[in-house]
Amino acid sequence: MPERTTTSTLNVPVDKLLEDAEETGHLHLAGRKISIFPPTASNFDLADVIEMDLSENRFVELPELTAHMASLERLNCYNNVLRTIPNLHGLHALVHLDLRYNSYGMLFVMWHSRVADIEPHGFVPGGCSPAAERGVRCMCQRRCPRR
Prior knowledge:
Layout: H1 7-10, H2 14-24, E1 26-28, E2 51-53, E3 74-76, E4 84-85, E5 96-98, E6 108-109, E7 111-112, E8 117-118
Parallel strand pairs: 1-2, 2-3, 3-5, 4-6
Antiparallel strand pairs: 7-8
């Protein structure tokens, strides 16, 4: 279950969270009901971020910069309206990807790496990725023997 965002975190300006992410490696933008990634993110060096929480927002697609965050280990996109995901081929450190409660019917994942091998038709409601077979915890919505 994703962490719940506290009111105090929601009161912190986004630029301050981006600045903190440069130092801590943790970017938490959960629960802000935003639909686009903050344009000011390009002013910050997020290459060393190891954890990014974008849960409980209104993202239709992940920001393109996500594909270039080579140190990213945990990506939480729980409860958005994601329909597309950029090519995440370069995320070699990624061990946790949470895509639960998104627009699965239209979700098209183009991602072929050591973490997961998700075919375009293989990520549908009630299904899960072969990532679980490679040691990544399955995060599909329904009961699954891989969970």
